[in-house]
Predict the 3D structure of the following.
Amino acid sequence: MSTNPRKDYFLLKNGLDYIEVEAKEESIRNILLWIEKNLDKAREIGINGTTKVHKYFNSEVIVNSRLSHIFNVD
């Protein structure tokens, strides 16, 4: 569940990798109620998002890659 404040839709997809909510009490409450009623689907979305984040946002890999490009090292 995220408010996605940067409105970044490039990698993570709403409804597939996370559930987007408005930063309002009613919106958050409604999504929590949806999760309670749709636990299997919510779990699937959570697993998808976690898998994608671990794959694409591994800071160790990203930093090493950037440093190798900066210093022209393979």
